[in-house]
């Protein structure tokens, strides 16, 4: 068991093989005796739901299930979930929510719990992003998204037996999202010097250390063995700690994320982490010509390193690069005016993304 307590971050973390089987006992130890509402997609519930329900029943919890096949990281979906929770015939103040799934489900649950002032327990079934433990929810409306400060889970359970079974494409996405710090930390420091943005040197150095450990164990991550799953899981959880510590998502997201947001909007494809991986290759080239370093780490994990690997058209990569600077009001290596079409194409070709 690991436990972090700093500022607004107070998440109990239980991780290991079969750790989910004890969720009922863990909640009792924490003094959570509420009526439980489980929110999950159909696939995620089929993977972990029965284990959770069996443990909760054994610990004599009452519960309701909200199994929704249309969970998306949008304000519309978040509002729909709030209405569903409110409609449950129970003492509303005595509810805790368990979210089972990937980043979209967990972001929705964090938002719902923030709005309704409820305890949240996170059970990731995928390691595709750092949404597990961050105190933010990234929600879309139209072609724009916002990082809304919500709150961190009261309990996070990482069951490696379940996480080892996820499709490898989600591991690849998680690697892309975690390696984003290679370019994001550069951008954050650049904004500190040139745009007077707030900065936390301690968080910066912890972020560097966790990234370096991930780099050292990247082959284990790609093999999805115990060490690899644990390293990626704890790397993603640590991002949540760092965001709360620094008070900003900039410790883990920069120009590469702006590119990913733009590409998601242009293509209509939700593959955030892998898009971040491509973005990190290109932004590392702009920042220091260390794109080959990023590419090597992605290749070592078996992750995509170019547009063709992801079935993305070159013109979409170029377009995303030209509009990326508009996705958030962030100062990054992309500058204030962004890249011209010609510069965007050269960058994508020089870095071998297209």
Task: Explain what this protein looks like in three dimensions.
The protein is of the alpha/beta class and 354 residues long. It has two domains: 2-163, Rossmann fold (3-Layer(aba) Sandwich), CATH 3.40.50; 169-350, Dehydroquinate synthase-like, alpha domain. The chain has helices at 23-29, 42-58, 75-86, 103-116, 160-163, 168-179, 181-195, 201-216, 218-223, 226-246, 255-267, 272-288, 291-300, 314-323, 341-350, and strands at residues 2-6, 9-16, 35-40, 63-67, 95-101, 119-124, 136-141, 144-149, 155-159. The strands form two sheets. A seven-stranded mixed β-sheet has the order 1-2-9-6-5-3-4. A two-stranded antiparallel ribbon has the order 7-8. Strand 3 (35-40), helix 2 and strand 4 (63-67) form a beta-alpha-beta unit. Helix 6 packs parallel to helix 12 (272-288) and helix 12 (272-288) packs antiparallel against helix 13. It starts with a strand and ends with a helix.
């Amino acid at each position: 068991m690991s436990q972090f307590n700093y500022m607004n971050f107070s998440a109990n973390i239980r991780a290991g093989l079969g750790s989910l089987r004890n969720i009922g006992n863990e909640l009792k130890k924490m003094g959570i005796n509420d009526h439980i509402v489980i929110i999950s997609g159909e696939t995620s519930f089929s993977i972990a739901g029965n284990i959770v329900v069996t443990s909760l029943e054994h610990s004599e919890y009452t519960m309701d299930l909200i199994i929704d096949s249309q969970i998306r990281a949008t304000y519309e979906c978040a509002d729909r979930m709030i209405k569903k929770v409110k409609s449950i015939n129970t003492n509303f103040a005595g509810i805790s929510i368990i979210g089972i799934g990937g980043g979209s489900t967990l972001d929705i649950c964090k938002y719902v719990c923030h709005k309704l002032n409820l305890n949240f327990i996170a059970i990731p079934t995928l390691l595709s992003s750092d949404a597990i433990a961050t105190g933010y929810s990234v929600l879309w409306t139209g072609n724009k998204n916002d990082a809304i400060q919500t709150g961190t889970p009261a309990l996070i359970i990482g069951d490696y037996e379940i996480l080892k079974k996820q499709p490898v494409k989600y591991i690849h996405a998680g690697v892309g999202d975690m390696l984003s710090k290679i370019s994001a930390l550069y951008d954050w420091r650049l904004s500190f010097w040139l745009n007077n943005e707030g900065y936390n040197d301690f968080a910066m150095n912890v972020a560097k250390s966790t990234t370096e450990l991930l780099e050292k164990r990247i082959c284990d991550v790609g093999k999805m063995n115990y060490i690899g799953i644990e390293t990626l899981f704890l790397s993603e959880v640590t991002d949540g700690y760092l965001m709360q510590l620094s008070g900003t998502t900039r410790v883990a997201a920069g120009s590469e994320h702006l590119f990913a947001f733009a590409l998601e909007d242009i293509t209509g494809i939700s593959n955030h982490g892998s898009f971040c991986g491509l973005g990190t290759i290109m932004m590392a080239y702009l920042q220091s010509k260390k794109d080959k370093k990023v590419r090597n780490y992605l290749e070592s994990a078996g992750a995509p390193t170019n547009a063709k690997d992801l079935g993305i058209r070159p013109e979409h990569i170029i377009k995303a690069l030209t509009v990326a600077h508009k996705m958030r009001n962030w100062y990054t290596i992309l500058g204030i005016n962004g890249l011209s079409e010609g510069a965007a194409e050269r960058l994508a070709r020089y870095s071998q993304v297209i």
